[in-house]
């Protein structure tokens, strides 16, 4: 019998600019709290490799789905991951597909001016692909 709902349809997360977080900013505590666990960092790293469901992430980081759920919730609340799609299990249950909310995470030590300088420098970079050089 054929399946009525799609499963594991490839999802491409949109490429986004790096997220710059300054140590003195008010929302930094949530980011560091979410990343205080090795498991949470492993999950986020896996999501930078490719989007995934909680059950896939549990397999990829070799932990329980309950543990992944806990850490994904913290990462989501800190604004580090987002739901990018929904897939269906073999039983027809909806499963959220997660990916990083932003591009690479850049943590800046220093005052607000240094954080803003870093943001400006990153904005000036052309991160869309390799650049050509004279003579190409």
Mind summarizing the main beta sheet? 2 strands, parallel
Helix amount, in percent? 25-40%
The CATH architecture of the domain at 26-101: Orthogonal Bundle
Question: What is the topology, as strand order, of the major beta sheet?
Answer: 1-4
Rg value: 18 Å
Counted by DSSP, the helix tally is: 5
Name the overall outline: elongated
Determine the CATH superfamily of the domain at 26-101: Winged helix-like DNA-binding domain superfamily/Winged helix DNA-binding domain
**CATH fold group of the domain at 26-101:** Arc Repressor Mutant, subunit A
The averaged pLDDT comes out at: 82
| N-to-C span | 56 Å
Biased composition (Acidic residues): 14-23
Pfam families: HTH_20
Organism: Halorubellus litoreus
Protein name: ArsR/SmtB family transcription factor
Descriptive notes:
The protein has 5 helices and 4 strands; from the N terminus they run βααααβββα. The protein has a domain of 76 residues: Arc Repressor Mutant, subunit A (Orthogonal Bundle), CATH 1.10.10.10. The protein is α+β, with helices and mostly antiparallel strands. The chain starts with 18 loop residues before the first strand and ends in a 12-residue tail after the last helix. The strands form 2 sheets. The chain has a two-stranded parallel ribbon with strand order 1-4. Strands 2-3 form a two-stranded antiparallel sheet. The longest helix is centred in the middle third of the chain and has 13 residues. InterPro entries: ArsR-like_HTH, WH-like_DNA-bd_sf, WH_DNA-bd_sf. This is ArsR/SmtB family transcription factor. It comes from Halorubellus litoreus.
